[in-house]
User: Fold this.
Amino acid sequence: MRQEIEVVGEINEIKEYVKKYGNIDLKDLIKSVKGNRIHICPACKGVGQISRTEYRNYENQYWWEKCSVCEGFGYTEKEKKPKLRQIGWE
Assistant:
């Protein structure tokens, strides 16, 4: 039953995309949405969101935040690498 609901939701999403973008291939749709963003975001790994955890009142609280590096797209125009800095001395 749950899978049927998920499939119906996906079909409705596809119908909305067809209304918005017309009858185009999926590859062309992805290219038009991504634009020049061809590099996977190193912060969110292409998801567009970052999970956060906080410990309050003897409970862990989880939530998702929009990635600040890629602005929620999951991809960036320029290749971004994490900056490494040295903490302490050996």
